[in-house]
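Let's study today's protein:

:::
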Amino acid sequence: MKKSLLLSCGDISGDLWASQIVLLLRERRPGVEVVALGGEESRKAGARLLVDTVSHSTVGLSEALRALSFWKKTWRKASAFLRKEKPSVLLAIDNPGFNLRLVRLCAREGIPVVYFAPPQVWAWGGWRGRFLARCADHILHLFPWEGKYFLGGRAHVSWVGHPLGAWWGKIPQRGPNPQTILFLPGSRRNEILSFLPVLRGLLSEYGRHFSGYRLVIVAASPSLRPLLEAGRGSFPVQVVDRKDLYPLFEDTVLAVSSSGTVTLEVALGGIPQIVVYRTSWVTFLLGCLLFRAPFIGLPNILLGQEIAPELVQGKFTPTELFRTMERLLADSSLPQRAKGWAEAIALQLGDGRTFERVAEVVARYLE
């Protein structure tokens, strides 16, 4: 019987990670069929797209409700595939809102489950950790201290490290006389649509204070570039592609980053940053009830202190952003501290063999 893999991810980062794993699996198991709930990167790596889930990535309850029709259709297609084709293994990557439902179905159908980058149960939804411990076969977590949240069930639990561990030492460090301010609005449309009005307000009210800097906004994917180019208005902000992010680090004095993986990348570059986040008020209020971590930014969470100021929801305004940027730009000791924080964060990311370890585990189910 031909061996097959169903992988499921839901955003740009997950799709990129999935593509690297697929490439490694095709080396180890050349005949394996890979079917994906993913995006363009998975497809280019050799997976057959069952549904393009990446283009419908959302954050928050109300945003997910607006995409409910799409996810209902995706569920019908994915569940029909699982029941009919019986893949050898499911590789779920992050995206717990959808993937946990797939995990439950796989457990009922006797299909093994490997879950890479499991839900952040240390921040909220502790029941998800207990659920995965019972229903998954192998849980591969990103940070060394996460494993304890997934014990007590039948699942094997392994620390494989964070994919960014491979980039430590390769990410360019901030240079001595940087002149660029980076704006990183996220990879989801609703994140960007919340970010852009604040950016325009900042430049409208305080743009004269940044006349000596190069202002750059980074598009997380080519499909988002038109949205950013239209959303910047007439202000002198250059829009660049994601591939240009690291080359910019050496000349970056400060970054304004939407909460997510990119905050770790910026921190590893030794670049001071402000972490921002805004969603619908329904989602925000619900999150206040459920979220247990003291910070939302990953660098702050990993180091247990606010190394990057956080402007969340009502605090993410043009005036508050300007005041925070002004304060950080005036702090002459901040660049040196940021370099030390980069080294401390790198210690929690592993040795860079994350994808190899994930591929090794998945390959066992394809023998």
User: Anything to note?
Assistant: The first strand starts at residue 4 and ends at 8. The domain at 4-166+351-364 is CATH 3.40.50.2000 (Rossmann fold).
